[in-house]
Amino acid sequence: SYYSWPSIMVYAPPEYRTTWVMSGIMLSNIAALPFLSRAIIRLGPIKSVAIGSQICALAVFLSSFVIQNGGTLGAFFSLYACLFGVAMTMVFSTPLPLAWQWFPGRKGLVSGLILAGFGSGSMLFNVLGSKFANPGGCAPIPGTGEFPNEVIDRFPLVLRKLAVIYSLLSLVGVSLMREPKLYPADSKYAAVRKNSERRAMLGPSIRSRKFLVLLAMVFLSCAGAYS
To answer: How far apart (Å, rounded) are the C-alpha atoms in residues 27 and 117?
Structure first.
């Protein structure tokens, strides 16, 4: 939904076409991290991903009715960008500590694969979104660059279809998540796992100077990239 928005927003009604949606998603994600970190740790990675992913799908689903009923851009933004971004906090990086426990000596590889999967999902949903919105391959109207009304009117249904797919794929992914069995207390793997769990605790990290610098960098990149 995050990376696919620039591709599918061309089919949306003009008043909802804004690349600030991407900025809103990322900024909401970062802003929610200090408040949700303890909840994520308390729930654990599997429950956090299960809850967060379904809220993400729900945000997209509900935002379709805002467009269908002619709601304001602010109402759409609060659902598609803000609520989705907050829920993404529970999904985006939460699987990493769990995967590190399975592969304590391959953290870099595991992190790269997970993040690559997150980003490459847009390749699929860019195509699906376009097929759902414009199945007949209608060309934009010459002179205006706008798609015919039949394409634009179909956009709320496109979001609902994508939301259902998000939800189903998330359920499949969560069903495959498992926490590893405990290693013997005196094994080197137990020490590595304990160290990984300690580093995964977000509370001290988000109050550090390094985190604040990274937060500022992300804010400036999000705010400036789409202006």
So the answer is: 21
Condensed to tens digits (0 to 9), the pLDDT of residues 177-208 reads: 888 875 444 444 444 445 544 444 455 555 56
Tokens of 26: 């990322």
Angle at 44 between CA 40 and CA 45, to 5 degrees: 85
Euclidean distance between CA atoms 60 and 163, whole angstroms: 6
CA pair distance 32, 182, nearest whole angstrom: 31
Average pLDDT of the residues in 209-219: 65
Q: Is 203 exposed, middle or buried (0-12, 13-18, 19+ CB in 10 A)?
A: exposed
* Structural tokens at position 125: 């949903």
The type of residue at 224 is: G
DSSP letters spanning 74-109: HHHHIIIIIIHHHHHTTTSSTHHHHHHHH-TT-HHH
- CA 36/CA 93 separation, integer angstroms: 12
pTM: 0.78
Residue 112 half-sphere exposure, CB side, CA atoms within 13 Å?
Answer: 4
Decide: 61 and 160 in contact? Cβ < 8 Å. Answer: yes
Task: Kindly report, residue by residue over 12-39, the tens digit of the pLDDT.
Answer: 999 998 888 888 888 888 888 878 888 8
Cβ contacts of 197-200, under 8 Å, gap ≥ 24:
197/97, 197/101, 199/97, 200/41, 200/96, 200/97, 200/100
Q: Label residue 225 by pLDDT band (50, 70, 90).
A: very low
